[in-house]
Amino acid sequence: MKGVSGRFARSVPDAPGETRWRLRSLLSVRSLAGQVFLLQLAVVALIVAAALVALVVQARRDTMADARSRTLAAAETFANAPGVLPALRGPDPSAVLQPHAEAARKAAGVDAIIVYGLDGITLTHSDPRQIGKHVIGPYAEAAAGKAFTRTFRGTLGLSVVSAVPVKDGDGSVVAVVTAPVRVERVQHRLEHQLPVLFGGAAGALVIAAGGAGLVSRRLRRQTHGLGPAEMTRMYEHHDAVLHAVREGVLIVGGDGRLLLANDEARRLLDLPADAEHRHVTALGLEDALAGLLASGSPATDEVHLAGDRLLAVNKRLTAPHGPGGSVVTLRDTTELLALSGRAEGARERLKLLYDAGVRIGTTLDVRRTAGELAEVAVPRFADVVTVELLDPVLHGEESLGATAGMRLAALAGPGEGPLLHPVGELIRSVTPHPVGAGTAEGGAVLVKDLRTADGLGDQDPERARRILDHGFRSLLAVPLRARGVILGTAAFWRRDPSPPFEGEDVSFAEELAARAAVCVDNARRYTREHTMAVTLQHSLLPRGLPEQSALEVAYRYLPAQAGVGGDWFDVIPLSGVRVALVVGDVVGHGLHAAATMGRLRTAVHNFACLDMPLEELLTRLDELVAQIDADEAAVGEDGQGITGATCLYAVYDPTSGRLAIATAGHPGPALVRPDGTVYFPPVPVSPPLGLGIGLPVESAELTVPEGSRLVLYTDGLIEDRHRDPDAGLSALRDALTGPYRAPEATCAAVMEAMLSDRPKDDIALLVARTRRLDPAQIAEWQVPREPAAVAPVRGACARRLTEWGLEQNAFTAELILSELITNAIRYGAEPITVRLIRDRTLIFEVSDGSSTSPRLRRAGVTDEGGRGLFLVAQFAERWGTRYTPNGKVIWAEQPLHEGAAPSVEELGEILLGSDGTAL
Hints:
The protein is an alpha+beta fold. Helix content is 40%, strand content 24%. The strands form 6 sheets. It has a 6-stranded antiparallel β-sheet, sandwiched between helices. Strands 18, 19, 20, 21, 24 and 25 form a 6-stranded mixed β-sheet that branches. A 5-stranded antiparallel β-sheet has the order 2-1-5-4-3. Keywords: Cell membrane, Hydrolase, Membrane, Transmembrane, Transmembrane helix. It is a multi-pass membrane protein.
């Protein structure tokens, strides 16, 4: 009954709604019937379209032919109409022709009949607004007397136009008639044939739909209701899971057998070809991984070992969504760890390069720069780093590019550093050695394993053996190259257990060495320039102190770390046992400042030898500095011109203890009294040299006790970036205060107390202990202005020389003194004073109230005078004139050693010419 009832139920007709639903499902594009129906529909549509195209093409061809003949006939008929030529000759052609043109257009069935004059003016048109307008068209043929027909596509669609000339009786063209028409005549042909065509297509589709439905019902029964789309999608997903994903996929049955494994799972687990349908414990997997796959427990990102790989395992159970079993995914984390390690290494390298850019080149010292390169690479890149530089580079010279003559400039790294080479040792590199080869060839040399390297022991086999014994395993040698010249080599060493250097380390080491090489070359160039400037400056500064009795002098000079400056000092003996002390400072540093300093020091020497007053000397020096600035500005030395200088000039007279001081923008001196107290005498400060503001220079005078110490210095001693001038003067006072110290000890104490770690400016220090001449060494006489006074002074001079034990000098001394006194009496003015000083030389000074300066000349044969100064110049070692506020002083110096006084025969030769003629 059950079977009968079932068959009966199936024989009952379906309800209308159910029938429509089944029909829609059968004809769906997801069903096979729907796809077959669509294929048949496409075929029918293609056939109908082909037939329709053929009809359209045929109809269009007929329509085009009809349009051409119609427009040409209409244009020719109107052009040859009897009233056209008279109307064209009339006063208003448009008024006559427009009605006839409209009538002809309607009769001919064209869009318009348009008449154009030869000047392009529209005479008739279907749109009256266009009459009278100028038109440009392709009517040259018609204007030439030839009719034509053409097809064109306008704003209203495809159209045909014919143009016919209107000819006069003599055959000349007077106008052009055109007749356009739109091609729209195909539709009425199709209207009669389309119903038949579409009816046949509809019948074919009904038959195709019925057949497709029957086929679809048959397939659904065989595929359990899955349509083609579902089956295709299932296959595509299955294929993507098996072959496209980068994760391994396993499907394990409830009995622990492997049902499916994709290609990635086979690669990661190294499964055999017949792995499917075998138990997971029989696949040769690790026990822990096999136990997880065979168990019924899920897992999330559990890490298991599979051969040499670390796998992240995720396991999910298929129940209750499917039959018993599990789906397992495998992800290889070994490559991810390696990639992460490489990314971290690259990040560390970039950070190391950044740190190298900050830490290398902080100073302009070649050895320090090499040390910074070694320190920045240890231990982040190498265990030990050595930097070898060519010996000329260490001294600031140009690199000769030779591999010999290398010195180990820097070494960094814990442990057995001395095993390589002691710092500073001269290394004779040989080409087979990796370091020597890198320098000779100009490229990096990578030795992954020193135990198998050639040439390692060529220089020192014993040292090479000890290097290997202490665990050095890998070496990377990179030349230091800057501006195309090799300066040295940086060698990076690694010891066990550090990994050996690889190829990717070479580019990093070359980049690190390139940055360091530029800094080393900059330091080398600076060292060379600094050495040249220091050499120039030392050659321009005093190489020793002159002999004199007025002062006991000591000095210190310290160039700045940043570069040689323009500080200088000088001790200049003057006439009358006086001594000039000079301290100056040229603004700026470098060779230019040093050269300018030499020019100013020479100028001060020359001005001092002229016995100029202090004020005049500094005024002349100010003019010189201004002239130097102007000359350099004229030649366009941008940035080279000085902006001024300062100078302190002091003159000490040991006969009176008087000290005269003048300063131009320079710090005043410090005076240490014999009791150890420090005093800063007030000195009028004039503007610095070279400003050219025209202010006068003022000076100060004071009496200095014997045994006092006069301290002159430049501003670099008391000023720096951490101390202002007032604090510097206070510190200088503290350093000078105390019990007596010799000038040399005073210099040492001041430099120790005042010197900073890295002075930014030059420092010049001059300490002079004052002395006084014994009054017994000085003889002085007042002389009346009369010739008879010369003899008594000569006699007094002879007696004083006898008292001093200088009888051998008496003859010359009397001669010089008598000539000087006679010159003062004859040409000078009162008061006349004679002073005789016994020091290292015998000094004669004759002063008078006249400012007239004597002039040395050679007297003629008939001259009665003019021989006095000539005799003085011959017998005296030096002589000269200096001016005083009240007149002048003519002085001369005579040596005290034996043989300094001329004999009578020599005197005769001087007084007589070579031919015996008296001078």
